[in-house]
Amino acid sequence: MDFLAQVKKAVELRLATEPNPPTRSLPLVDFLKALGEFGIIAEYKRASPRGVVRLDMPPWAYFAMLQPYAAAFSVLTEPIWFLGDYRFIPMAKPFRPVLMKDFVVDSRQIDVAYGYGADAVLVIYRLVGREKAMELAEYAHRLGLTPVVEVDNLQDAREAATWGGKIVLGINARDLTTLEVSLQKAFEIAKALRGDVDFIIESGISKPEEVEKACMLYAKGVLVGTALMKNPVLIKELRHAAEACVSRR
């Protein structure tokens, strides 16, 4: 059983036992607008399928420390591989707009994202396929959430880019089959899509020059997880690179 097949099985079990989502009480923010010309999306990521990232950084401390430099936060809510929790969403919300990252296969998960206060939700193209990804993205859009449709190859990226202005494309440098990371591949996809759709680049970003490269490709932002979890003060350098790039392009 490959990783995505394991993920689907785990989500099915979660959906069978999770309670109804809470009633939303937090304001809804335009996630794309919050990124401005180019924004750093800082991810709270305690673990990944490759193992523990960091467990000694409380979420509220992370959000408070990075707020001056991050345009938005990404919050992992998947509990098995990422040790996430839906309750991290309202912890992040007072600081910046929030993207909920999970393996979303059902609209009920989008209801949960909405109820807990998220402003955007991740939909993984390869996990659910074209038709379901479109259905989930449209459902999120109807609720007022920004659908971030994640792709890891050019063919899927080009297909999703034709859906119009309702989505933000998340170009993932990580291959979801092998879990290997190639920023070069992500940059090549970005070059091919430039001007066709709003997009961000995810995974593998850890250096100011990588932020600058993404910015010069006219991405709307970069999502940075592991590097910032291990070294939160790195965000100052990343933000400086982003601001310098925006001033030149």
Which tags fit this structure?
12 helices; alpha/beta; two-stranded antiparallel sheet; 44% helix; 8-stranded parallel β-barrel
Q: Topology, please?
A:
Blueprint: H1 3-17, H2 31-35, E1 39-44, E2 47-48, E3 51-52, H3 59-66, E4 72-76, H4 88-92, E5 98-101, H5 107-116, E6 120-124, H6 125-128, H7 130-143, E7 146-151, H8 154-161, E8 168-172, H9 183-193, E9 199-202, H10 208-216, E10 221-224, H11 226-230, H12 234-248
Parallel strand pairs: 1-4, 1-10, 4-5, 5-6, 6-7, 7-8, 8-9, 9-10
Antiparallel strand pairs: 2-3
Helix pairs in contact: 5-7, 8-9, 10-12
Number of helices: 12
β content, as a range? 15-25%
Overall 3D geometry? globular
Q: Summarize the amount of helix as a percent range.
A: 40-55%
Low-confidence stretches: none
Task: Determine the structural class based on helices, strands and strand pairing.
Answer: alpha/beta
Termini, distance in Å? 45 Å
- The counted number of beta strands is 10
Q: Over the alpha carbons, how many angstroms does the gyration radius reach?
A: 16 Å
Strand order of the largest sheet: 1-4-5-6-7-8-9-10
The overall pLDDT, averaged over residues, is 93
| Largest pleated sheet | 8 strands, parallel, barrel
Order of SSEs: HHEEEHEHEHEHHEHEHEHEHH
Write a structural description:
This protein has 249 residues and is an alpha/beta fold. It is built from 12 helices and 10 strands. It has helices at 3-17, 31-35, 59-66, 88-92, 107-116, 125-128, 130-143, 154-161, 183-193, 208-216, 226-230, 234-248, and strands at 39-44, 47-48, 51-52, 72-76, 98-101, 120-124, 146-151, 168-172, 199-202, 221-224. Strands 1-4-5-6-7-8-9-10 form an 8-stranded parallel β-barrel, surrounded by 7 helices. Strands 2-3 form a two-stranded antiparallel ribbon. Helix 5 runs parallel beside helix 7 (130-143). The protein is globular, with a radius of gyration of 16 Å. The mean pLDDT is 93.
